[in-house]
Amino acid sequence: MYPSRFQYEAPRSIEEAIALLHKGGGEAKVLAGGQSLVPMLKLRFASPEMLVDINNIPDLDYLRVDSDGTLRIGALCRHADLEKSMVLETHQPTMAAAAPLVSDPIVRNRGTLVGSLCHADPQGDWASVMVAVDGHIVAQGPKGRRSIPVSELMKGPFQTVLAYDELAIEAVVPAPKGVAAGGYLKLERRVGDFATVGVAVAIETTDGSVVRAGIGLTGVGGSTINAKDAASALVGAPLSAASIARAGELAAQAAQPRSDHRGGATYKRHIVSTFVARILNEVAESKGKAA
Amino acid sequence: MSSLYVEVSPEPASDVPVRRVTITVNGEPRTADVEPRLLLAHLLRSGFGLTGTHTGCDTTNCGVCTVLFDGTPIKSCTMLAVQADGHEVLTVEGLAGASELHPIQEAFKDEHGLQCGFCTPGMMLTAKAFLEDNPDPTEDEVRWALSGNMCRCTGYQNIVKSVLAAAEMLRAKAGN
């Protein structure tokens, strides 16, 4: 399969990339890891007039923690970099759990977290994770930079609120308010398939009590789902069997799954509540052991 | 064989500028003029005649087109040839030495790690990068590392055995 013809540009700076996107007038696409875009070009689901390949822009592949605990992931940080990172394990366990579950090992060598967010596939793992950890992206355009919470980034399937001449340069996760815990679970028929269901849960606790919680759902709606009510049910008290069950129930209600070849809607809702409970029970158990 | 590749299929449009790229393939610099939409897998196969890199699903699922890009396994059907400009690519043709097979090839032969052979180049290249990172893996780690490469003969058992045997051979060699 061959993509349609396009003009190829490989800028060496963020400013140059933005100027090209601006010139492209909405007919240009950013190429980062390309693990979703290139297949779409080949299938001709996408046929942009211009590709702006950002792989030659230096210093965008970082993964770092600022002194105040803020985590920053550059636009060229690959899934494999996140998977191998020791930083995530202690700092953002929900992200650490998700990194090895994104697609397959070869795709992870090339694909990027920021690219996955901008691709806005409702089946994308990182968007749910970033919703759970309250992440945002920094977008730069001709008029400067702005922050967009990941929960507000997706407009719908494959659609974001990014302007055509804005480039997402990094994803940012604020420092946890207390001790960060959580996880990501994904049901897939085989490695690399789209998720039947994915669930990201992140909680932050101070003195045993949950001070912040976030739950994001993958693949059970037209867009990434922010299960706000389910997360709220956990805040203000230590985790308990009752609060965990309630969060699972509310998350299943927030899901909008469709019955398809991967499973029925009822089944998918059941998986959502099961995964929420499984992640939270594990967190509660490990806390019990630590205490 | 000419190392200059000017023809892509379908014919390049006159208004689409071709780009000159130089890629170090199996240690040798190769130069080609390519249309930006040409995929790396197609340049390797049709342009450079290196048909050891196979194309299977063409949708980034199967991993048979895996090559090492600056030492890292990537799916060459999911990278544009222009993106490889200035980089190093290793294909299965570059694995063996002048007179002897690479230990990974040796191990695949000894352990019957191939049936039809279609997935084998991708399997071996993924295994090469993996064993450099993890010279003494467990069986589970091998299975995990190969999870992006599919074998439609479903001959995974012997593929895993081959990679474990290759690890042993490579460790023995490194110890000498």
What labels describe this entry?
heterodimer; A: 291 residues; alpha+beta; 3 domains; five-stranded antiparallel beta sheet; 12 helices; 35% helix; B: 176 residues; Ubiquitin-like (UB roll); DNA polymerase, domain 1; 5 helices; 5 strands; globular
Task: Indicate the mean pLDDT of chain B.
Answer: 92
Total helical segments of chain B: 5
- What name does the CATH topology of the largest domain in chain B carry? Ubiquitin-like (UB roll)
Q: Order of strands across the biggest sheet of chain A?
A: 4-5-10-6-7
Give the low-pLDDT segments of chain B. none
Average residue-wise pLDDT of chain A: 96
* Topology, number of strands of chain B: 5
Largest interface: A-B, 30 and 33 residues
Radius of gyration of chain B: 17 Å
β-sheet strand percentage of chain B: 5-15%
Number of domains of chain B: 2
Number of domains of chain A: 3
Largest sheet entry of chain B: 5 strands, mixed
Helix content of chain B: 25-40%
